[in-house]
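Subject: Predicted fold for TetR/AcrR family transcriptional regulator, 253 residues

User T.R. writes:
Posting the sequence so we have a shared reference for the thread.
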Amino acid sequence: MASSTPRTSDTAEPGATGARRARNRSSTTRRDLVMGEILEHATRLFAERGYDGTTLQDIAEAIGITRPGLYNYISSKEMLLAALVADVTGSTAQMLRDIRQRDLSATEKLRAFVRALVLQRAAAPERFRVLDRTESALPEPIAGEHQAAKREVLSEAEAIIAEGIATGELQPKSERVAALSVIGMANWVAWWFHPGPDHPAEPIADQIAQNAVDMMVSPAGAHADQASPRRAIEAIRQNLDFVERQLAKSADD
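User M.O. replies:
I've generated the C-alpha cells; pasting them so everyone works from the same file.
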C-alpha cells in the first residue's frame, strides 16, 4: 500500500537551488555594477569639490537616483573612501604579492611589477589622485588599512629588489630607497599621463618598466643578460624600433 505521507520537495530542490544561485549571481553582478558607478561619480565629485565639499545628495543626483535609493548601496561617504582604499592600495598590494610568487627572475619581477603598476595608475588616475589628496584626512579604521597596504606594497617591492641583489642581478643599493624610487616613478603617471586611442598606456608602461630595470640592473647582470640569445634579439628589435621611430619623425619634420 502506498504511503499516505506527503512527498517532500527534495526532487525539486536542485532546480530551485540552481535558480536561487542564478538570481543571487545576477543580483551580485548588478550590485557590483551600481557600486562601480557610484564610486566613479563620487571620485569625480571628490576631485572637483573635495571630499568635505561633496554630499551624499550630490552623489545621488550625479547617478540619477534618490538619496534613499543610494542608501541601498552605501550608508556614508566613509564607505566610499574604504572602497577607494581597497580598489587603489589594496589591489596594488595583492598584485605585487602575485607577481613576487611567479617563477621569474628578480629582474623580470621588477619589470612586471612596475609595468603593471603604471597600467593600473593610467587606467584610473583620478581614483589615485583623490586618495592621495585625502590620505591625511582618512578616518580610522580606513587610514590604518590604507597604511598597512602601503607598507605591504613597499615590503614586497623591497623583497623583489633584495632577491635581485642576492642573485647578482641588481646593484647592491638600499632596497628601501630603490623600492620607493620605482613605486614613485610608477605612481607619478597618475598625474601627467592621459591615455587615449593615439597614445595608449602600454608603450609608456614598457618604457618606465625598462627605466626601472636599467636603473637597478648590475653591470655583471646586464652583461650576462645580453649574452642570452633571446635577450640579444629583443635588444636588436628595440633598437630597430627606436631607429624607425626616429626616421619617421625626421620624415614628418
